[in-house]
Structure formats: C-alpha cells, structure tokens
Amino acid sequence: MKGNPEERAVALALYITENNATVRAAAAAFGVSKSTVHKDVTRTLYKINRPLYEAVQKVLRQNKEERHLRGGEATRRKYLECRGLPIKPAAGARAGRVGQNYDSVY
C-alpha cells in the first residue's frame, strides 16, 4: 500500500492496534518496509491523530518489552526442529500473539 502517507499511517496504526502486530508484521501485511511503518506510526501519526498514536505506542512498547522472549522462543523452536524433537509451547508462553503459531505443534 503506497500512496498518501497520512492514510497509510492510519491504516497501519489500526492494523497494529487491532492485531497487536509488530512493525515487521505490519510491514509484511502492507507491502512496505519496516522503516516506512515506523516513520508512519511515529512521526506522521503523531501529527494527524494523537489518540491513535498513543494506542500504537502502547502496543509497540509491549512488543519491545516482549521481543527477547519471542526471539528466545524462535531459537528454541529452531533448535528442536533441527533435532527432530517435538515442539511444545514454552512454559509461560502467551498464546494469541502475532507471530506465534502453535497449531503445527499439536
């Protein structure tokens, strides 16, 4: 989705807040770069829709706080897959987050 940066910023923000999506997931869904997503939901959105900006920042802060957990989970899954071992959700893993799909595990 190229085009009007203001419209794109609002669309990206709605996608991120509705899906608790990461910047990477939003970029993939809209066919733009992570840099474009970040710029749109920080600079552009701040100027045009402050309440939506605050909602997006809340999701992005949460994602930043959890990213070391997601990275660790990805490494654990890769390690298990390489050895042909069964993959189970890690203890304390939160289901329903974008980027985590345990359907193939069961």
TL;DR?
Helices cover 67% and strands 0% of the residues. The protein is mostly helical and 106 residues long.
Summarize the structure in words.
By secondary structure, this protein is mainly α. Helices cover 67% and strands 0% of the residues. The protein has helices at residues 5-19, 23-30, 34-48, 50-82. α2 crosses α3 (34-48) and α3 (34-48) packs antiparallel against α4 (50-82). The N and C termini lie far apart (35 Å).
Structural class of the secondary structure composition? mainly alpha
Q: Which quaternary structure do these chains form? A: single chain
As for the number of domains, it is 1
Count of alpha/pi helices: 4
Shape: elongated
How large is the share of residues in beta strands?
A: under 5%
Q: Helix and strand string, N-terminal first?
A: HHHH
* Radius of gyration, in angstroms, nearest whole number: 16 Å
Quote the distance from N terminus to C terminus: 35 Å
Low-confidence stretches: 95-106
Task: Please render the helix and strand layout as text.
Blueprint: H1 5-19, H2 23-30, H3 34-48, H4 50-82
Helix pairs in contact: 1-3, 1-4, 2-3, 3-4
Essential attributes:
mainly alpha; 106 residues
